[in-house]
Amino acid sequence: MKKILSFLLAAAVTLTTAAALSGCASAEYPVEVANITIQNEPENIVVLDANSADIIAYMGLDGKIVGRSDQVDQQGLAAAPSVGSASNPNVTKIKESKATVVFAPETLRDDTEEQLEEAGLTVIKMSFAETPKQLMTTYKTIGKVLCGQNAGEKKGEESYKKLIRDMEDIQSTITVNDANPVNSETVCYLYYENNNLKIMTQDTYGEMLLEYTNCVNVAGQIKEATVDVQVLNQNKPNYIFYSDEQALNYIKSEPVLSKLPAVRGGSMLQITENEMKRQGATAVQTVKRMVDFVHKGKSSTPDEPATKPAAKAAAKPAAQAATQAATTAPAKASAKTATAQQATQATQATQAATRAAAAQATNTSVAAEYKINLNNLSLKKDQENANVKIMQKRLYDLGYITDASNVTGYYGDVSAKAVQSFQQANGITANGVATHATLVKLFDKTAKKAG
Questions:
Q1: What percent of the chain has pLDDT over 70?
Q2: Is residue 441 domain-resident?
Q3: Is the pLDDT of residue 200 over 50?
Q4: What is the pLDDT of residue 31?
C-alpha cells in the first residue's frame, strides 16, 4: 500500500453547519506550520486530499469546505462543488471559490501549486501518519491551521482522543468467553500493488486498526510487504481482509493461498484501501466492520448496516462444534459403528478439555480482574489501545508507574521504562518491550512490586 504523504486521513461524515466552527479562535493568528504562515483564520478552504477532508470533517470543521477534488468521495462531503482531480485541479474554480487555504496531496503538480500560490492561496501538502503519535500531531496541526495556535491545538488533541475512544468503545463490545477468547483469532490484510500481492506489516497505521479487533496480525513481525505464500500457509490466518477484486482474484487463483482455510471457508471480507487509509469516522466504521465480521459473524459494506450472512447464521461456530464433539464423540467412538475419525476427534476434544481444566485449576493470573485476555498478546512502543492502558494500570498498581496521569493508553517512554524496571525486578530480559512472557508475569499474583 502506498504511503501517500498527507497530513492525514479520515472519515465519511455528514456535513456540519457553520455553527460547528464556534470553537475556533481567530484572534490566535498568525500561525506557523512547517514554515508556512497562516495570517488569519481561514473561513473558506478547498480540500484536494481525501484523507485531510476526512479529518477536517471528523473535527466538525467541514463547514469551511467550499471546494473538493473528485477523490474526496465521502457522501457527507458531496455538497461541496468539485474542482477536478486531486493532482491537477481546475485552478480557476479554486480561485472562484474564495478559499484562502488548499489542503493538497503530495501528488499535486508543481505548476498547479505555483499557480495557486501566485493567486495568493496557501497550499498545505499533507503527509500520512503511521503511528498514534504522528496521528495526534496531524490532528493538532490541522486544528492550528483552521482554529488558531492554542484553541486549534486543543481542538485537534480532543478530536484525536475522541477517535481513539470511539474505536476503544467498539473494541469493548467484543465478548470474552470460552467460545470466543480475545486475541485468539489471527488475521491479515492483503492488497494488490505494482502487480504484486502485498500484506499489511508491522508499524503501519493499518496494523493499528487491526489491533482494535483484538486479533493477531500474522504479519505483525514482518517488515517486507511482498507476500510470502509459505508464511501465510504456515500461519493460516483465521480471517483475511482484502482490498479489491484484483487482490481477491489473485488469492483465489494462487495455488497455495487458494487452499487456505479462510479462503475455502469464506472467512474473507473486503476492506478497501480508502477504508484502511482514512483516520476519522471512516476509521471507526472500518474497525466496527472488522469486529462485526470476526467476532459477531456479521458482514456489511461502508454504507450498509451489518447483517449476518445466511451461510454463517446457519453454521455453528467452530468453538461450539468443538464443544459438541467433546461431549458426543466419546460415546460415538465407543460404539461399534464409530469411525476412526470420530474416535480421533473424541480423544483430541477430551485432551483439550483436560488441559483447559488443569490450567484453570492452577491459574494464579489476575488478568480477568483487569479485563484483559493475554492469549498471544504482546505490546510494543508507540502502540495506543485499551490493552496498553490496562498494562499501564497494572504497572501503576505495582508501583512501576508512579503518576496516574501516565495511564493514558499510549506506549511511550514512560511505559517502556516502567516495563524495563518490572522486567529487571522479575528476572526477565529487560528491553522495555511487553512480550507475551512479560505480560503473563505482570498479571500474575507472584509479580514483584517496585522497590
A1: 79
A2: yes
A3: yes
A4: 93
Q: Does residue 109 contact residue 87 with C-beta atoms inside 8 Å?
A: yes
The tens digit of pLDDT for each residue in 297-346 reads: 888 777 677 776 654 444 434 444 444 444 444 444 444 444 445 444 54
In the DSSP assignment, the letter for residue 65 is E
Distance between CA atoms of residues 127 and 58, nearest Å: 18
Helix axes 281-296, 149-171, angle to 10 degrees: 10
| Bridge partners (DSSP) listed for residue 270 | 242
User: What is the spatial distance between Cα 72 and Cα 444, in angstroms, rounded to a whole number?
Assistant: 50
Dist CA 346 CA 338 (whole Å): 11
Element (H, E) at 241: strand 239-242
Q: How far apart are CA 403 and CA 401, in angstroms?
A: 6
CATH of residue 416: 1.10.101.10
Q: 266 with 338, same domain?
A: no
CATH code, domain with 26: 3.40.50.1980
Query: Which of 382, 386, 387, 442 shows the shortest CA–CA distance to 418?
Result: 442
| Nearest one of 46, 53, 58 to 13, comparing CA atoms | 58
pLDDT at 65 over 70: yes
**By the 8 A CB rule, do 220 and 379 touch?**
no
Residue 102 contacts residue 121 (beta carbons within 8 Å): yes
Phi, psi of 108 (to 5 degrees): -60, 130
Q: What grid cell was written down for 11? A: 472519515
Give the separation between CA 99 and CA 44, rounded to whole angstroms.
4
Joined grid coordinates for residue 65: 469546505
SS3 assignment, position 426: coil
Question: What is the domain range of residue 192?
Answer: 186-308
Task: Report the amino acid identity of residue 80.
Answer: A
Assess whether 90 and 44 both reside in one domain: yes
Cβ neighbours for 50, distance < 8 A, ≥ 6 positions apart: 9, 69, 71, 72, 73, 74, 86, 274, 278
Say how far apart CA 138 and CA 144 lie, in whole Å. Answer: 10
Same domain for 208 and 109: no
pLDDT band at 363 (very low <50, low <70, confident <90, very high): low
